[in-house]
Amino acid sequence: MNSVAWVCTGGEGPTNDFDLHSLPEPSCICAADSGVDLALSLGLKPDFAIGDFDSIVDVASLSEITYDMYPTDKDYTDTELLLIHIKQQNLPYILLGGGGRRFDHLLHMYSLFESYGPPLHWITCREHMLLVENSISLPLRFNTTVSIVPALISGKSSVTSNNLVWDVKDYEISSSSMSISNKVLNPPITLQVEGPPVFLSIVSKL
Considering only the top CATH level, what class is 130-203? Predict the structure, then answer.
């Protein structure tokens, strides 16, 4: 893949023990509001930032970053403004952050994928959500906890797995039907997906 944006946002994100080198190299690094803090904590310098920056630890950190400032009272969240920007660039993206803390923020983040497309990877402090559009084979460690969930709220897919403790066959993955807290039995595991993409959620911290 030649061009991919790394999008850093607020909420719980990956820590320094996550191997960023395992991800496709970014053509640009962008941040929404306190996503600037996340980027800097990971040793990343954003090429562009957007938001009202009411949650950022040190506004002075913006001095060496190109950014667009918005008022606090607005119709879009800072993350949505950034995803609008990314979509206008026609770039696939990897999402860092956005986990935990407030359920309303988490649910809104998830809902944005309907309008702007789901990320190729979504990494929080506790899980790595990997987008699966057709099929995938992964050499995950024995007993790793994984879940299969829809990548889009409206998505309804048929999924078949191999080498999980509780394999699924032509199983519906949707907002009302998911495979939660499954386990790797024999690596590599494989998934076959028919229909809209799904996320394979790989739990890194319980």
Answer: mainly beta
